[in-house]
Amino acid sequence: MSQASAAPSLLEDATRAARLRFWIVIVGVLVIAAFAGTSAYDSWRSYGHVIIANNRELDNLAKTLAEQAADTLQTADLLLRNTVTCTRPTDLQPGVSRTTSWPVDRPACRRCAS
Questions:
Q1: Quick check: helix, strand or coil at residue 91?
Q2: How confident is the model at residue 95 (pLDDT cuts 50, 70, 90)?
Q3: Termini Cα distance of the chain
Q4: CA triplet 76, 87, 92: central angle to 5 degrees?
Q5: How far from the centroid of its chain's Cα atoms is residue 86's Cα?
Q6: Centroid of chain to Cα 65
Q7: Domain limits of the chain?
Q8: How far apart are CA 42 and CA 47, in angstroms?
Q9: pTM of the full predicted structure?
């Protein structure tokens, strides 16, 4: 009689072990899927932050380059104005050519020449 009762208990043990194995596999797959999902979410958030930071840096660079270009043009304009001031004859008499009234003795030209 002990052999007859042992057979169903072995079958129950095998079924219980198979069911336990099945649930362990299911929980393991869910944990791995959760890790993969959080990693994908973190990657997507990181990508968004990188895009925002790059756009901010590009805006800053564009503003800096525009300011530098404006300063360069302003400097060139200032130099041209000073050149015109230094080389413009102020006391032209009728009949006197421009070459003879070169304004070397003007204070602005001395500033430019030095």
A1: coil
A2: low
A3: 124
A4: 145
A5: 46
A6: 15
A7: 1-42
A8: 8
A9: 0.53
